[in-house]
Automatic annotation (TrEMBL):
InterPro entries: Nuclease_put_TT1808, Restrct_endonuc-II-like, Uma2. It holds the Pfam family Uma2. It comes from the Bacteria. This is Putative restriction endonuclease domain-containing protein. Residues 17-176 form the Putative restriction endonuclease domain.
Length: 189
């Protein structure tokens, strides 16, 4: 006798409001999750090399970012739309006097998002990067710890980013708002 298993085809799509209510009710407790495309997605545990790279970036940005024009945050939500609120490792935002206490930043307030990737590399490239491009985030860096490089994505469009450049140790990476930095200065290697 053959037992057939029903295939589940319908899933529930959570809104940001649903997600916030669940968090307030303690559903996630100490789980690290983010909302992507209406799905609640587990975030990878933070390993020491990942944390070290985030700390290196924080240190660099705090010393070189013009403080009157920009604000940077680490591992805080970005409200992209009603169904996506990712938590990139680092965000460079347009300065706002309330320091984003009234609401999470929206796409037009984002200058640069940085994802530090070791075990999350596939998710960052295949899921989060297209999401960022579809919301016109102007620049995204993936700090690829596995291959010891920084992948810079600019010029977002409906099919993704069209200006893609790989920076290796010894290379310098610059932005429109900050002087060039040597790649090794922001990689915890």
């Amino acid at each position: 006798m053959t037992i057939q298993v029903a295939k589940i085809t319908d899933t529930h799509c959570f809104s940001v409001a649903d997600y916030h209510r669940m968090a307030e009710a303690g559903v996630f407790e100490e789980q690290r999750v983010e909302l992507l495309y209406g799905k609640i997605v587990d975030m990878s545990p933070i390993k020491s090399n990942h944390a070290g790279s985030v700390n290196q970036l924080i240190r660099y940005f705090s010393m070189h970012l013009p403080k009157d024009d920009f604000l940077f945050t680490a591992q805080n939500p970005i409200h992209l739309d009603d169904y996506s609120e990712p938590e990139p490792d680092l965000s460079v935002l347009k300065y706002r006097a309330d320091l984003y206490a009234r609401s999470h930043p929206r796409p037009d307030e984002v200058v640069l998002l940085v994802e530090v990737a070791d075990t999350s590399l596939e998710k960052d490239r295949d899921i989060k990067l297209p999401l960022y491009a579809s919301h016109a985030i102007p620049e995204v860096w993936i700090v690829n710890l596995k291959d010891t490089q920084i992948e810079r994505y600019r010029s977002p469009g409906p099919k993704g980013y069209t200006d893609i450049h790989i920076f290796l140790p010894g290379d310098e990476i610059a932005t429109d708002f900050m002087e060039a930095v040597e790649v090794s200065a922001v990689l915890s290697v």
